[in-house]
Amino acid sequence: MQKSLFTALALASLALAPLGLRAQNELSNFGSTGRGGVANTFVSDYQAIGINPANLSRLGSPKFAVGVLQFGVGLGSQSLTREQMYRFIRRTDDKLTPSEKQELAKAFTSDNALNLNADVTTFGLSVAVPGVGTIAVSNQQRVVSHIGLNKNMAEIVFLGKDAPIYQNYDPRTSPLVSEALAGTRMQMSWLNEFNVAFGRRILDNDAFQLSGGVGYRYIEGVGVVDIRVEPGKLEAYGSVSPLFDINYGDLARNPQFNYRKGGSGLRPVGKGNGVDLGLALETGKFLRVGVSVTDIGNMSWEGNLLTANDQRLKRLQSTGVDSYNFFKEATELVAAGTDSLFQYQPSEKRTTALPTKLRTGVGIRISEYLETGLDVTLPLNEVAGNLTKPFIGAGIDFKPRRWVRLSSGLTTGAGYGFSLPLGVTFTTKWYEAGVSTRDVIGLFASEHPYASVAAGFLRFRFGEQK
Fold it and tell me: I need a surface site. Which of 91, 330, 375, 453 has the fewest CB within 10 A?
């Protein structure tokens, strides 16, 4: 195989990130990103898709909203320094010295060595229908990547055959991969979503308003790579679109291999269906409470699908990653080549759960100029594309002038440390545009770096639901 599955998807993630292609659904929402992802009681109109569809019909939501090309991207690490992280992007041709290889082997020994989340909402629309409710549609592209390595895996990646675990190596007594590499995760996914959602007020009186909502999405799977190693268990598979033009060699002629080639566009290799459910409670315009469960459903991967099984740890022939082109070189070590840690077999179909989450939020609207909120989001499974840890955040929106809204807060979790977000949105009666970052400190911090940006300049809102 001239190109690995893992190389293809990793490089795709990096290539698409500068174009503004995410783990949390709100990264393409510049307002929510400015609050660090706090969204459950703030979002309305089509931006409620994937977060809480009940908010479509809440008080103050626009009667009509439309937007195109809202985007966001974030790249961070809990173990690399800022300089190390940026070298993997800007200095890919530079060779690693022996001392740098040792330093990186230590730095990558982490359950959160590198995280990339990217998202673009190509189109969103919501319309309030009197006496019926609010209907919303959107299209989103999601790219999510997470890399966490245990000590043995990090040393193998950067030191290759010279890794300490290979001292006195004997293939007959070598430990199983599931034992030697336990704690390692390499997960990447790219999904193309078509969403439709509906929200309606269930109860509406002077004391409170209760809204319910449901959302449905049809998903095209452009690619997935999921490697998870636990004591006694190896989970490793990949399925990638012909878009990446991978040469599978003899595998393409295997009758058990569902080989896909040619076509146009994204050329998906998987498909799925997802459902969102939500409730939103408001007491006048002061207190808001929201709860939702998102991404209930499954994905089926069929095209170009390969799966690896557990076996005794194989000694590499190479000296590991030798340059800052980490994504290319490291993934070649876990691909289906002659010098790989894993042995792959073609598969016909694999069904996996969507990254299901429980999202809760409480918000207080102090005035039309000031609103605060607290969100807690819990991952309900461990599939590729889900949060690696629970997310907790407090956010605030403040309007010093009618035409500008400032957003900030404090967040933690979801595979990142504490973050101080900041965003600015310019508003008129019918137009919004803004830019935000999920962590101001992370942009400049030498330790635990996190670089993120979200922006949107074509968003329009008309009318107000009462």
Answer: 91
